[in-house]
Amino acid sequence: MARASRTFVCQSCGAVTPRWAGRCESCGEWNTIVEEQAESSGVGGGPLKVVGKKGRQIELVSMAGETADPPRLVTGVTEFDRVCGGGLVPGSALLVGGDPGIGKSTLLLQAMAALGRKGADVVYISGEEAIAQVRMRARRLGLADAAVQLGAETNLKDIIATLETGKAPAAVVIDSIQTMWSEALESAPGTVSQVRATAQDLVRFAKRHGTAIILVGHVTKDGQIAGPRVVEHMVDCVLYFEGERGHQFRILRAVKNRFGPANEIGVFEMGELGLQEVPNPSALFLGERDGETNGSAVFAGIEGTRPVLVEIQALVAQSSLGTPRRAVVGWDSGRLSMVLAVLDARCGLTLGGQDVYLNVAGGLRINEPAADLAVAGALVSSITGNALPSDCVIFGEISLSGAIRPVSQMEARLKEAEKLGFKRAILPTSTARQRPSTGLALTEISDLAGLVAYLAAGETRRPRERRSNDL
Ligand code: TYD
Ligand code: MG
Questions:
Q1: Judging by beta carbons within 10 Å of its beta carbon (0-12, 13-18, 19+), is residue 361 exposed, middle or buried?
Q2: pLDDT over 70 for what percent of the chain?
């Protein structure tokens, strides 16, 4: 009789090792390796059985053939549809990840209710909440009348058997994949092998029946919790729902999309009545700006296909600690260190003894290198006490030499700024051919020292006694 073999699986990346170790060799995470029973069915990474049958010949076709664009299930929650690339694709699998409590269940309940109201057959399976809880939330959101079939279940076999009876639904939400379990495996729900096996079965169901499957997955900030990472490879589309706890803004971001542009964002506001769409995020992110303040710069960024203006705030203050603080919200702290190092080495602005705080207003997370110059602008403005003009946007990538590199889609950035009433822009020097056509007054900057000189010169005004410090 075959002995059930034991394997050790990293709960962060899913790598399988024959023995336990404190650190996963493949992803470098600590304390993520857990002992699991190897599956006997061959599902999800277990040893495949060799079947003594000759392979079937498959048909190879040319690349030039005509294939229509996939049809779309448009939910009517416009921000959600746009992030999906124009609506859900029948037969596709989508993963919605995010921290617990960020609003995934709320978003999907709203999207499914909107779809149900349009007459589509939709099912919402909750493995975390009882029917009464889901109903209560639906009632509070004013969605109780929407045609959504609810189920509270975690046994995958029962769920699939239920979905397979009668006409397959147009869309199914599984909330969440970590609570699902398959009888075929002995490991606990939420372990990598359970998550992988149940997700695989659900993806297979989606492909076979043309149903759009939406999987919800919890991810903690440090990636300690098992699962969704291994699911990312199986699904067609991965969306992350993010936002800062204290802020009401929530951002839905596509990090992978086989049917549309990745990096697209949708912006929502969490309120009394659930998530409200924010069709014009720039106006919202800039809405709370308090005029001309030092340490503030408006970055003209691009999120997916959409230009978004956000305020970047910096505060540089004398430190009372031996090791000064570097606190960053909404941006990469490594990138901040780089900008500080370039300011030091190329412009002589030494901030070794100063605390530096950097904040992207509104809870947005920026990944673009194009924000370098805006960050530098906010920092230098805080150091000199001179504010950037309040009707000015700024963008550009900083290289280690201190040179400012041009960035993509300059025209789209400037157009958005113009639309929102900005009059000027600080941007990288470009050749005549690259130069964007715009109605804004442009200040081209070729290196970081140029920005420092600009801010130190009379171009900018001292705001009404609002200096954080004098150097
Ligand atoms: P939820 O959708 O349950 O989060 P997740 O499924 O990602 O764990 O959202 C929970 C949070 O959202 C909770 O803290 C309360 C808040 N919320 C509101 O502020 N307003 C609302 O109308 C709803 C439904 C939730
Ligand atoms: Mg939930």
A1: buried
A2: 90
291 C-beta closer than 6 A to ligand 1: no
Q: What is the pLDDT of residue 96?
A: 93
Per-residue pLDDT, averaged over 175-191, amounts to: 88
| Ligand 1 atom 22 nearest Cα | 274
Ligand nearest 97 Cα, by number? 1
Alpha-helical segments (H) within 348-419: 372-384, 410-419
Report the separation in Å between the CA atom of 327 and the middle of ligand 1, taken as the mean of its atom positions: 28
Per the rule left: phi > 0, alpha: psi between -120 and 50, beta: everything else, 313 is beta
Which of the residue ranges 125-129, 138-142, 406-410, 431-435 would you say has the lowest mean pLDDT? 431-435
Cis peptide bond upstream of 381, omega within 30: no
Residues 124 and 175 sit within 8 Å (Cβ to Cβ) = yes
Q: What is the pLDDT of residue 51?
A: 58
Q: Which of 216, 249, 270 to mutate to test the pocket of ligand 1 (most atoms within 8 A of CB)?
A: 270
396 ligand 1 Cβ < 6 A? no
Ligand 1 pocket check for 105: Cβ under 6 Å: yes
Residue bearing the bigger pLDDT, 175 or 245: 175
Angstrom CA distances, 12 to 4, 19, 181, 235, 245, stand at 24, 16, 18, 17, 24
Residue 270 alpha carbon, nearest atom of ligand 1: 19
How far apart (Å, rounded) are the C-alpha atoms in residues 80 and 108? Answer: 9
pLDDT at 340 (0 to 100): 95
- The label of the residue with tokens 């059930």 reads 4
Chain segment 319-357, per-residue pLDDT in tens: 888 889 999 998 999 999 999 999 999 999 988 889 999
Ligand 1 binding pocket includes 103 (Cβ within 6 Å): yes
Residue 115 CA to its chain's centroid (Å):
24
How far apart are the CA of 399 and the centre of ligand 1, in A?
41
pLDDT digits (tens, 9 = 90+) for 22-77: 888 888 888 888 887 765 544 444 445 555 678 888 889 888 877 777 789 999 99
Which residues lie closer than 8 Å to 470 by C-beta, 6 or more apart? Answer: 385
Report phi then psi at 238, rounded to 5.
Answer: -120, 120
% of the chain exceeding 90 in pLDDT: 52
- Which pTM does this prediction carry? 0.78
CB distance 108 to ligand 1 below 6 Å: no
**For ligand 1, is residue 102 a contact (CB within 6 Å)?**
yes
| DSSP classification of residue 259 | T
Site to probe by mutation for ligand 1, drawn from 106, 124, 245 as the one with most ligand atoms within 8 Å of Cβ, is 106
Assigned token pair, 266: 């949708």
Report which bound ligand comes closest to the CA of 240.
Answer: 1
